[in-house]
Amino acid sequence: MQNIVGEQHSDSSSDDEELEFLALFGVNAPLNARYNVAPVGGEKRHFYDGKKSGQDWIDDLKAGHHDRMLNAMRMDVPSFLKLCEILVNGNFIKQDYRKRVQAEEAVGMALHCVSHDERHRNIAERFLHSTETIHRNIKEALQAIVRLAPILIRPRNETGVHPKIYNSNAFYPWFKDCVGAIDGTLIPASAPLTRQRAFRSRKGEISQNVLAACDHDMRFTYIYAGVEGSAHDTRVFQHAVLSPDSSFPMPPAGKYYLVDSAYKNMPGFLAPHKGHRYQRDQFGGVSGGPRGKYELFNHRHSQLRNVIERTFGVLKARFPILKGPMSNYLMNRQVELVIACCVLHNFIRDEHPHDELFARESGEDEEDYADPGAQPQQIDLSAAAQRNWNSFRMAITDHMFDHWNGRYVPH
Fold first, then answer.
1. pLDDT (tens place) for every residue of the chain, 411 residues total
2. Residue 63, exposed/middle/buried by CB under 10 A (0-12, 13-18, 19+)?
3. Residue 224: which residues within 8 A CB-CB, separation 6 or more?
């Protein structure tokens, strides 16, 4: 896959090996058990002999109460139909009248899988197909969704001042050039015994380390998935930003992302001052005001940067399969699942902006400030460039503190 959304560290196993892997876990054995033998007379019957097919169920959802589709697929009916239309018309997924499973049903299988973390056996019972058919169609649908990543996971609206910043006395004008935030998260994974040590995180869990960037609309603009859980966040960040193969979307000149203090300071990435935090009371609240300019800057920096944490929260709440450990899939499929869920997250954000999960975190309906002519800045890691960037942060800090103390009169 193109590294527009980040490098995938995946196995090069064949489909046959994957089916064998699934069989060992007992989720697909026997893989072609479409028939069983009746206890009397030896008569063969179709194994999945329910009255309502998977396509019948999809049709019922489309014609039924709108909450039924939301509960089953995590998106409303118009969004579901539009997603299927995009995948078919863009030739991301094959639509052939000779196929037993058409595009709508295949996409429904994939969405039901990631939305409920269902075992393939349960999905087979719901859609009345063999587990081999379920596995094959879910894989095809997820790969089709992943191919939408370069279209849906990308920066936009990077040259204007975002309304969330412009309309806030705490953020404007100091963060007017901020285009989003960057952070990492651990996604539980299932790794073979020979690789479990590499994928064991500092918390002792088998996981993959996922680095992501998002904008202030809670849309992912970059995903770097599949890194071993033992990798340090700083190393993942530097590899994603500095590697020419990762296609990291640098912000336009003069713009920047907000990052955690764990990430190295460089032009284009604004980190907080180290070692300066608000004092917390026994209930976890802020005790008094800031003790100085550094605490004031860090507090407002954290308020704005937590958009990436809220975005991760919405993603994991909508797609429980990300809570892992994804034991049904090889590592390359687990990476694809993460990217596919991020693609679906952005698609739902665009098509259904008042979705309940998004509404809990951000009910704002933002304007469009896109400027396709914006040019990304180049990374300069020289000592002089880093000194200039630290001076820039200090200037923001001093100006913000003077304004907070009432010593600054705006021009």
1. 444 555 454 444 444 445 444 444 444 444 444 444 445 555 555 565 656 788 999 999 999 898 999 999 999 999 999 999 999 999 998 877 777 888 999 999 999 999 999 888 999 988 989 889 999 999 999 999 999 999 999 998 777 899 999 999 889 999 999 999 999 999 999 888 888 889 998 888 899 999 999 999 999 999 999 899 888 888 888 888 888 788 899 888 889 999 987 776 778 898 888 766 655 554 445 555 677 888 889 889 999 999 999 999 999 999 999 988 887 788 889 999 999 999 999 999 999 888 888 888 764 434 433 344 456 666 666 778 778 878 888 888 888 888 887 765 454
2. exposed
3. 5, 6, 7, 210, 211, 212, 236, 240, 246, 248
Q: At 37, is the secondary structure helix, strand, or coil? A: strand
User: For the residues of 136-192, what is the DSSP string, one character each?
Assistant: HHHHHHHHHHHTTHHHHSS--S-SS--HHHHT-TTTTTTTTTEEEEEEEEEEE----
Global confidence as pTM: 0.82
Compute the distance between CA of residue 390 and CA of residue 375 in angstroms, rounded to an integer: 23
Q: How far apart are CA 225 and CA 89, in angstroms?
A: 28
CB within 8 A of 41, min separation 6: which ones?
none
If you search the block for the tokens 């998260």, which residue do you land on?
185
What six digits make up the tokens of 213?
């960037």
